[in-house]
Write a structure and sequence with these properties.
- By secondary structure, this protein is of the alpha/beta class.
- It has two domains: 126 residues, Response regulator (Rossmann fold, 3-Layer(aba) Sandwich), CATH 3.40.50.2300; 80 residues, Arc Repressor Mutant, subunit A (Orthogonal Bundle), CATH 1.10.10.10.
- It has a five-stranded parallel sheet with strand order 2-1-3-4-5, sandwiched between helices.
- Helix 1 links the parallel strand 1 and strand 2.
- Helix 6 crosses helix 10 and helix 7 packs across helix 8.
- The longest helix has 33 residues.
- The radius of gyration is 25 Å and the shape is elongated.
- The N and C termini lie far apart (63 Å).
């Protein structure tokens, strides 16, 4: 079976029922949504790549690897793709388990074409939003890696609102040195304003909660101890 390109948001239907696969394929193609179909989870898994955008429509009860077991395997791979489960058995406990493990939706059979299409459209939008956020976070982390240890300290103080004069005192350097570091931080982070810089750091959890907080604490501790040895610019 031909695999879709990673850049194309695609709906993947996984169902052991030939009639269901065929009807869903025709339905999705009728509104120009790219779709691929698989008869089993075992057939699908070798072809799946994490950065393939789209969503999955998965029958809960299939021979071999069932829908919930497939979901667990995808979770272990770190897959973010939304999963819409379909079931003809009305299994409430199974639906609850699927949602607890991160399923996007659970749709009992029979369902209307429009109901399915509405859920697919929402799932595709959710996937696109998630991937944009991940791409943005990755970009921010790449920018953070360009900062020197001193520039990370300056960044930490910028985002908590410290003025240059106070930063200079905290870091034990001249105000001019702080201005130089601040300019380098803005350039490396590709930020046009302090407000944007704050939003960028808040966009990634480790920077917002752990990394920057630790940097602020380290600055304060070193300042109390009179240690300013990190700075090479005077």
């Amino acid at each position: 079976m031909q695999r879709v390109t990673e850049a194309t948001p695609t709906v993947v239907v996984i169902d052991d029922d030939d009639a269901v696969r065929g009807s869903l394929k025709l339905l999705l193609k009728s509104i120009n949504i790219p779709v691929t179909v698989y008869a089993s989870a075992q057939e699908f898994l070798p072809s799946y790549v994490l950065d393939q955008p789209g969503c999955l429509i998965v029958d809960v009860r299939m021979p071999g690897l069932n829908g919930l077991e497939l979901q667990q395997k995808l979770n272990l791979r770190g897959a973010m793709i939304p999963v819409i489960f379909i079931s003809g058995h009305g299994d409430i406990s199974m639906a609850v388990e699927a949602m607890q493990h991160g399923a996007f939706d659970f749709l009992p059979k029979p369902f209307s074409d429009q109901d399915l299409l509405d859920r697919v459209q929402r799932a595709l939008q959710k996937d696109a939003d998630n991937r944009r956020q991940v791409a943005r976070s990755d970009h921010i982390r790449e920018c953070l890696e360009l900062l020197t240890p001193r520039e990370r300290e300056v960044l930490a103080l910028i985002v908590i609102g410290k003025p240059n004069k106070v930063m200079a005192s905290d870091l034990g350097v001249s105000q001019r040195t702080v201005e130089i570091h601040r300019a380098r931080v803005m350039e490396k982070m590709q930020s046009g304003s302090v407000a944007q810089l704050v939003r960028m750091t808040l966009a990634i959890e480790d920077a917002a909660k752990g990394g920057l907080a630790a940097q602020v604490s380290a600055v304060q501790t070193r300042n109390k101890n009179g240690d300013t040895s990190q700075d090479s610019a005077t």
